[in-house]
């Protein structure tokens, strides 16, 4: 299974093509739209979220509400396109576009590197594609993957662990309760007192023209033992999830389970003892390693955290250098968020969903959804008898 995305931040639309889905998979448009809506929520979001109301249009691969086995094409309209046609139309006038040309790269963005690499003297050609607007397309792809996971009894959740200097207290909850509490919180934080202080910190940063980053956590429950593989580096599922998370705009780090805390502990306080019962089969007494050993799932919940840096577009811009004059200027300002960590947790949730679904289909190749569900069911029964 694979997907491609195309489109610019201020172009007419984002396009997603998903290939490799089994046929006869119930395809609920409202579930895709719900994930897109979740991505647009969160305390600290900018003005664009008031413009866009993301929904998908299905152009191929679905008939009578089910997949056909052919590539699925999804389109997400950019409503802001109406204000940018003269600048972003494929055959727009260079003279018209010159009015909005960007010769000043913004620190922390792809602007300068992309301009040098691809020979652009208008950095809009870089920022339009490198914009986090593209994560809407990735969320749509992840939402499609979730349809597969749901059929196989696999559920996902995410929440915010930290924003700036404010860190939430750990709260142990059943997944359904965690999902509900995260959705009810403006910052997707389970600790109500910490959530209040996070919002105050976001207000302060916005007032100062600054931005904030943070840490998000994704949890996946119901994953069978043995997704991924130990036999080669590129088949290790935790490595693939790590790559997917760090590829999200502004993400700079990732950890599983206790993560970097493992460096401080002795081995006896890191590794998960193996247990067995007739009802559960093999399981772990703890889950410090976040559901992975040897690049494969252990059957425990996958627990992965990602670190998001503060958004680099600031309303009190940092200095940069004009590529034409080589003079120092304050970097240009594009419309931006003060804090996008809550929304980023939703993006992370969906990119993890994609990787888990891909690993599931690699282990259980299936032409139809029914075949997949039956294979997973039989495998779960076999692991109990191992």
Domain count: the total is 1
- Strand content is 15-25%
The whole-angstrom Rg is 22 Å
Q: Give start-end ranges of low-pLDDT stretches.
A: none
- State the helical fraction: 25-40%
Largest sheet, in brief, is: 5 strands, antiparallel
> Helical element count?
12
Describe this structure in words.
The chain is α+β, with helices and mostly antiparallel strands. Helix content is 34%, strand content 20%. It is built from twelve helices and 17 strands. The strands form six sheets. It has a five-stranded antiparallel sheet with strand order 8-7-9-15-10. It has a four-stranded antiparallel sheet with strand order 1-2-6-3, covered by helices on one side. A two-stranded antiparallel sheet has the order 4-5. Pfam families: Chorismate_synt. One of its GO terms (cellular component) is cytosol. Its EC number is 4.2.3.5. NADP(+) binds at residues 39, 45.
List keywords for this structure.
386 residues, alpha+beta, Chorismate synthase, AroC fold, globular, EC 4.2.3.5, Chorismate_synth_AroC_sf, Chorismate_synth
Write a compact overview of the structure shown.
The protein is α+β, with helices and mostly antiparallel strands. The protein has helices spanning 29-40, 48-51, 85-88, 94-98, 111-118, 124-130, 135-151, 175-184, 192-207, 237-246, 341-363, 369-385, and strands at 2-6, 13-19, 56-60, 62-63, 66-67, 72-77, 155-163, 166-167, 214-221, 251-256, 274-277, 281-284, 292-293, 296-297, 302-308, 319-321, 328-330. It has twelve helices and 17 strands.
């Amino acid at each position: 299974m694979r997907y491609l995305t195309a489109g610019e931040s201020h172009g007419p639309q984002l396009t997603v093509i998903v290939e490799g889905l089994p046929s006869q998979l119930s395809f609920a448009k409202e579930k895709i739209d719900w994930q897109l809506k979740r991505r647009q929520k969160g305390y600290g979001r900018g003005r664009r979220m008031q413009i866009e109301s993301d929904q998908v249009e299905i152009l191929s691969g679905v008939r009578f509400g089910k997949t056909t086995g052919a590539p699925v094409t999804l389109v997400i309209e950019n409503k802001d396109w109406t204000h940018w046609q003269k600048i972003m139309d494929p055959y727009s006038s260079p003279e018209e576009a010159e009015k909005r040309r960007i010769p000043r790269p913004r620190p922390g963005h792809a602007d300068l590197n992309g301009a040098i690499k691809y020979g652009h003297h208008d950095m809009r050609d870089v920022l339009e594609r490198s914009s986090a607007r593209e994560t809407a397309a990735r969320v749509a792809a992840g939402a499609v993957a979730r349809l597969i996971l749901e059929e196989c009894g696999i559920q996902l959740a995410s929440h915010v662990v930290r924003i700036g200097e404010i860190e939430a207290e750990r709260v142990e909850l059943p997944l359904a309760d965690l999902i509900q509490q995260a959705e009810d919180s403006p910052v997707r934080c389970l600790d109500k007192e910490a959530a209040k202080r996070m919002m105050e910190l976001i207000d302060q940063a916005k007032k100062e023209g600054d931005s904030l980053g943070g840490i998000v956590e994704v949890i996946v429950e119901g994953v069978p033992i043995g997704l991924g593989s130990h036999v080669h580096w590129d088949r290790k599922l935790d490595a693939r999830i790590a790559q997917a998370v760090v590829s999200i705009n502004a993400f700079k780090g990732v950890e599983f389970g206790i993560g970097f805390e493992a460096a401080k502990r002795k081995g006896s306080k890191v590794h998960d003892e193996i247990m067995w019962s007739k009802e559960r089969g093999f399981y772990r007494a703890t889950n410090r390693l976040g559901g992975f050993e040897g690049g494969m799932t252990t059957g425990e919940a996958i627990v992965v955290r990602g670190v998001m840096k503060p958004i680099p577009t600031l309303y009190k811009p940092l200095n940069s250098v004009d590529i034409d004059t080589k003079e120092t200027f304050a970097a240009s300002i594009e419309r931006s968020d003060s804090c996008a960590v809550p929304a980023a947790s939703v993006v992370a949730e969906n990119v993890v969903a994609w990787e888990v679904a891909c690993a599931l289909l690699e282990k259980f190749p299936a032409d139809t959804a029914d075949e997949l569900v039956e294979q997973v069911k039989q495998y779960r029964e076999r692991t109990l008898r191992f």
